[in-house]
């Protein structure tokens, strides 16, 4: 890939709204992405290799559990810092941000919120330091948008449970040391449990041939009569609301992350358009290319404002599921459209790995699907404003 010359757009001086701590955290993440992600990410994506070298760096910049209290090894930061870290990481690559999102919001968050003290002490510090990598098993072959229909089951055997079933499309699965898994008990109630690599009957085959998120490892979780100790059940919340609560936190991070991918595409297209001469002048001097670039910075600015406000609400404990849905849906759609337009600004060069745009575009096809599809988020907004669920 060409040298990373990224310059972050801040058209409405949003930095003025950030605290000194926010700026420090953001700039540390930005610097790390330039130093440790940009030089290796294109090759990792081209070869569909999960770059394990990034794990210690993600831990160092506080990307594993940014808002988890320091007593459990987290960074103890607020929600805006969490968002800014996700923005910077996804500026590098959505797959790298996926690794951080899953570890923070889908593995550490449920252990922190629904786990007992022994589980928190046992797992959180090691997840924060990157000594352990986790994954989150909700989606199944027959149940994606409708996780409430899940078929994975646990059976109470007196002194332990037995787990049977399968999850698919699970980020980090092939490398994960532990999995937070959602399964129904005999009463049909959804419970969260921690499954550890090495437990007999537990396997994590990798999913190959993806054209998207190629630098993130995706796999299945297969449970064939896996014996689960009772102390591995998350005791403090059950029902579908438990996994959906984790999704709120991860979707919030994605809303910020998508801005990073959009910024990178815009910045690349702007620079290229000023340098590329056709018909004796830079293509940036043509009305058609200016339209693309002007619309990109407008949409990025709107997304930044939406997300900053959402961060304030989240810090106050007032952000609703529907507000988070709106931001995830809007920002990922915005980033995907910008990636497609930016790719055109680069002409043929836009399809090569010399530039990051095509990789972002392909990655965003997963981001628009996972953590609730574009259409499911529209239905969440529709339900919120009408009071009538249209899912079923
Ligand atoms: P519904 O009847 O609406 O709700 C069931 C229960 O859950 C409660 N609830 C929530 N609780 C906490 N937080 C939320 N966000 C909640 N949303 C709902 C609700 O109050 C109810 O509680 P109770 O006590 O009355 O039972 O459920 P539904 O079955 O009708 O489904 C609604 C729907 C479609 C919105 C939901 O199923 C959904 O969001 N589907 C999308 C599935 C999804 O997003 N999957 C993501 C899998 S993980 C992933 O993709 C990770 S990718 C990570 C990466 O690589 O970065
Ligand atoms: P489906 O639910 O089959 O949907 C197919 C289409 O139908 C979509 O367009 C959808 O919007 C539409 N649709 C569905 N229901 C309705 C309706 N009621 N009304 C109108 N339209 C509807 N899951 C995890 O649990 N953990 C992970 O770590 C994880 N990582 C992932 C990583 C990647 C790279 C990908 C691609 C997915 C990952 N997922 C993960 C799964 C992801 O959450 C699901 O793919 C997503 O929730 C959609 O489910 P599905 O693919 O089964 O699509």
Gyration radius, to the nearest Å?
Answer: 21 Å
Q: Report mean pLDDT, rounded to a whole number.
A: 98
The largest sheet, given as strand count, sense and whether it forms a barrel, is:
4 strands, antiparallel
Low-confidence stretches: none
Summary of the model, kept short:
The chain is α+β, with helices and mostly antiparallel strands.
In words, what does this structure look like?
There is one protein chain. This protein is α+β, with helices and mostly antiparallel strands and 392 residues long. The chain has helices at residues 20-46, 54-60, 79-92, 94-114, 117-129, 241-275, 287-315, 321-345, 357-367, 374-386, and strands at residues 134-137, 153-156, 160-171, 178-184, 190-196, 202-203, 218-229, 277-278, 281-282. The strands form 3 sheets. Strands 2-3-7-6 form a 4-stranded antiparallel beta sheet, with helices on one face. The chain has a 3-stranded mixed beta sheet with strand order 1-4-5, with helices on one face. Strands 8-9 form a two-stranded antiparallel sheet. The longest helix has 35 residues, at 241-275. 50% of the residues are buried. The protein binds 3-thiaglutaryl-CoA and flavin-adenine dinucleotide. 3-thiaglutaryl-CoA binds at residues 98, 101-102, 136, 138-139, 145-148, 171, 239-241, 244-245, 247-248, 250, 321, 370-372, 376, 380, 389, 391.
């Amino acid at each position: 890939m060409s040298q990373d010359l990224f310059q972050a757009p801040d058209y409405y001086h949003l930095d003025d709204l950030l605290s000194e701590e926010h700026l420090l955290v953001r700039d540390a993440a930005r610097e790390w992405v330039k130093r440790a992600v940009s030089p290796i990410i294109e090759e990792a994506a081209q070869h569909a290799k999960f770059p394990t070298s990034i794990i210690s760096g993600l831990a160092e910049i506080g990307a594993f559990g940014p808002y988890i209290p320091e007593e459990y090894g987290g960074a103890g930061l607020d929600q805006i810092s969490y968002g800014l870290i996700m923005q910077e990481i996804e500026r590098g690559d959505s797959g790298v941000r996926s690794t951080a999102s899953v570890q923070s919001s889908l593995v550490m968050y449920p252990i922190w919120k629904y786990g007992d003290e022994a589980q928190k002490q046992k797992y959180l510090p090691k997840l924060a330091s990157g000594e352990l990598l986790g994954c989150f098993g909700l989606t199944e072959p027959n149940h994606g948008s409708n996780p409430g229909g899940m078929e994975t089951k646990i059976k109470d055997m007196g002194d332990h449970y037995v787990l049977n079933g399968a999850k698919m499309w699970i980020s980090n699965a092939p490398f994960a040391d532990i999995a937070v898994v959602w399964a129904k008990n005999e009463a049909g109630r959804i419970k969260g449990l921690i499954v550890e690599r090495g437990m007999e009957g537990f396997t994590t085959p990798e999913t190959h041939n993806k054209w998207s998120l190629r630098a993130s490892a995706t796999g299945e979780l297969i449970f064939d009569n896996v014996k689960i100790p009772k102390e591995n059940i998350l005791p403090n919340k059950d029902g579908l609301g438990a996994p959906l609560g984790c999704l709120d936190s991860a979707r919030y991070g994605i809303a910020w992350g998508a801005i990073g991918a959009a910024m990178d595409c815009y910045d690349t297209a702007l620079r290229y358009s000023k340098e590329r001469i056709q018909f004796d002048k830079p293509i940036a001097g043509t009305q058609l290319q200016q339209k693309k670039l002007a619309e990109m910075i407008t949409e990025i600015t709107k997304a930044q404002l939406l997300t900053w406000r959402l961060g304030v609400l989240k810090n106050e404990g007032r952000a609703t599921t529907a507000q988070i849905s709106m931001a995830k849906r809007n920002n990922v759609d915005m980033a995907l459209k910008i990636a497609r337009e930016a790719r055109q600004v680069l002409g043929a060069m836009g399809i090569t790995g010399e530039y990051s745009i095509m990789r972002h575009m392909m990655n965003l096809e997963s981001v628009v699907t996972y953590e609730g599809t574009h259409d499911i988020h529209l239905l969440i907004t529709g339900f919120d404003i009408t009071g009538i669920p249209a899912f079923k």
